[in-house]
Amino acid sequence: MFNSLSDRLALTFKNLKRKGTVTESDLNATIRDIRMALLDADVALPVVKEFTGAVRERGLGAEVHQALNPAQQIVKIVNEELVSILGGQTRRITLAKTPPTVIMLAGLQGSGKTTFAGKLGRWLADQGHTPLLVAADLQRPNAVTQLEVVGQRAGVAVFAPERGNVFGHDAALESGEGTRSFGDPVDVAVDGVEDARRKGHDVVIIDTAGRLAVDVNLMRQAHDIRLETNAHEVLFVIDAMIGQAAVETAKAFADGVGITGSVLTKLDGDARGGAALSVATVTGQPIMFASTGEGVKDIELFHPDRMASRILD
Ligand code: GDP
């Protein structure tokens, strides 16, 4: 990931470093190159504008650093602004004063929520926590089973709703009286938190339903789960491969559900990086974790400075 963006920026800086002094027109040319490189990497336009605006302003402001030549100063500014649009500081999960800490996962179908639930559970368990995964995705018939399998692989307990309620082979259906009675995901989430409290789990991770596109009903459902469970963290899970659609999706979840951070998945893929570079700015919330593969251990805390270095080195 980021290979093409990295190569483009490296070339831009190489050209800049050849110059002893940096004139305003050199700065403008550099910013133009950066702008094109970011847009080609699928970074959202408002983010590109904010980024290049800040670099230009600070570049013109010519912060005088005795130890650095003008070109190095521009590179330093670009690095700092990149860290800034990636969210600045590393942000860790805030644990509730009174357990259990409730962490809810929201995002489009296929973004990697269920896989990430297992990874986060394992990661927390490795740190001495006693997490419980809650299967509140009742949209897809096999989502509950999938979470159970994920939990088993990760060695983390799972709270699943009563099967009869979920799959609907219930009396109403059998008597031909109409539709299946799927359980209510909000109730399942609340019951899951209650179960954790009873059994002494100190963290609850709630997996919620997603759709292939933003959907008003599911958004409301996720919003209700957040409110009814008093979720401490709502993590928006986003596939890094999603490209330009990242902005609209991220905004919809930030506005419709209310999120406290994001999780970038599939960073092991060959995405151009746009989602990664846009999501913190678009949502106003930090990226907290990176998921880098399908294995249960493929999870990392997200460090904006390290990600910026990876792009610029
Ligand atoms: P959900 O619908 O949001 O719960 O998404 P899933 O957890 O079912 O993931 C969808 C697909 O993406 C599955 O095939 C996962 O194995 C795969 N996946 C999830 N996270 C990653 C990741 O970080 N890297 C890669 N390469 N694949 C992933």
UniProtKB/TrEMBL annotation:
<comment type="function">
    <text>Involved in targeting and insertion of nascent membrane proteins into the cytoplasmic membrane. Binds to the hydrophobic signal sequence of the ribosome-nascent chain (RNC) as it emerges from the ribosomes. The SRP-RNC complex is then targeted to the cytoplasmic membrane where it interacts with the SRP receptor FtsY.</text>
</comment>
<dbReference type="GO" id="GO:0008312">
    <property type="term" value="F:7S RNA binding"/>
</dbReference>
<keyword id="KW-0687">Ribonucleoprotein</keyword>
<feature type="binding site">
    <location>
        <begin position="107"/>
        <end position="114"/>
    </location>
    <ligand>
        <name>GTP</name>
    </ligand>
</feature>
<keyword id="KW-0342">GTP-binding</keyword>
<keyword id="KW-0963">Cytoplasm</keyword>
<feature type="binding site">
    <location>
        <begin position="207"/>
        <end position="211"/>
    </location>
    <ligand>
        <name>GTP</name>
    </ligand>
</feature>
<dbReference type="GO" id="GO:0048500">
    <property type="term" value="C:signal recognition particle"/>
</dbReference>
<comment type="subunit">
    <text>Part of the signal recognition particle protein translocation system, which is composed of SRP and FtsY.</text>
</comment>
<protein>
    <recommendedName>
        <fullName>Signal recognition particle protein</fullName>
        <ecNumber>3.6.5.4</ecNumber>
    </recommendedName>
</protein>
<keyword id="KW-0378">Hydrolase</keyword>
<dbReference type="GO" id="GO:0005525">
    <property type="term" value="F:GTP binding"/>
</dbReference>
<dbReference type="GO" id="GO:0006614">
    <property type="term" value="P:SRP-dependent cotranslational protein targeting to membrane"/>
</dbReference>
<keyword id="KW-0694">RNA-binding</keyword>
<dbReference type="GO" id="GO:0003924">
    <property type="term" value="F:GTPase activity"/>
</dbReference>
<comment type="similarity">
    <text>Belongs to the GTP-binding SRP family. SRP54 subfamily.</text>
</comment>
<feature type="domain" description="SRP54-type proteins GTP-binding">
    <location>
        <begin position="286"/>
        <end position="299"/>
    </location>
</feature>
<keyword id="KW-0733">Signal recognition particle</keyword>
<feature type="binding site">
    <location>
        <begin position="265"/>
        <end position="268"/>
    </location>
    <ligand>
        <name>GTP</name>
    </ligand>
</feature>
<keyword id="KW-0547">Nucleotide-binding</keyword>
